UniProtKB/TrEMBL annotation:
Pfam families: MDMPI_N (PF11716). This is TIGR03083 family protein. One of its GO terms (molecular function) is metal ion binding. It comes from the Bacteria. It comes from Micromonospora coxensis. The lineage of its organism: Bacteria, Bacillati, Actinomycetota, Actinomycetes, Micromonosporales. Residues 11-154 form the Mycothiol-dependent maleylpyruvate isomerase metal-binding domain. Gene3D superfamilies: dinb family like domain (1.20.120.450).
Length: 224
């Protein structure tokens, strides 16, 4: 199989979120998600901010070398960190729209623009975001990972929603593999969705999971 083109994975990740939220009414956009304190519209606003950050980062070239890659980037965001202020800010920002569907409209304008910028960018070039320098390809992988996980978060109370696409899922899984290290292997019975939800603390480990993971169980969640 050919290596994943990161801009294609990001395009699939963002299109997957669009497929979930486009067509939802105001009531559905106020359904709960897996992110504590956030409704669907709140979480979509958070991902919208990521797409906006992508546009800024891709227009912010930097000298190399990078100080993080697509895996080590996440070590700046340890699981269990106190994100209460951001959670509250995103809720209030999403609530400032006249209707929840306003967040969807802005997402549908912004996400494709971020993908177009990603497609046009040199994957080997360096950019800066959130105080780090990283290659464009690694930036896109971090954005895809976040979008893939949040796609699963969005669908908690939307049982008919489509799942994340295979390219987006593969990038997110590769991120978790990198954080897990080469010395541990995920339980064979886990689906990719199980792995992403357990690696990010959305779903707790069972006793069997802990037995199969052994010492590596203490590393979970791998990111928040």
């Amino acid at each position: 199989m050919r290596p994943i083109a990161q801009h294609e994975a990001l395009a699939q990740a963002y299109q997957g979120i669009t497929d979930v939220v486009r067509g939802l009414d105001d009531a559905d956009l106020q359904r709960p998600t897996r992110c504590h304190g956030w409704l669907v519209a709140d979480l979509l606003f958070h991902v919208l901010c990521d797409a906006q950050r992508a546009l800024v980062a891709l227009a912010s070239p930097a000298d190399g070398p990078p100080d993080v890659d697509d895996v080590s980037y996440w070590r700046s965001f340890p699981p269990g960190g106190d994100d209460t202020r951001h959670t509250w800010w995103a809720r209030r920002s999403a609530a400032a729209f006249d209707r929840p569907t306003g967040v969807v409209r802005l997402w549908c304008d912004t996400a494709p623009a971020a993908v177009r910028a990603a497609t046009a960018a040199d994957p080997a070039a360096h950019v800066t975001t959130q105080g780090h320098v990283l290659r464009v390809a690694d930036l896109l992988a971090t954005l895809t990972t976040e979008a893939g996980v949040h796609h699963l978060d969005l669908t908690l109370d939307l049982p008919d929603a489509p799942p994340p696409g295979p390219l987006a899922t593969a990038v997110a899984v590769a991120t978790m593999d990198g954080l897990l290290s080469d010395d541990a292997v995920r339980p064979a019975a886990w689906s990719d969705a199980d792995y992403l939800l357990k690696a990010t603390g959305r779903t707790p480990l069972t006793d069997r999971d802990r037995w199969e993971l052994g010492e590596a169980a203490g590393w979970f969640p791998l990111l928040g």
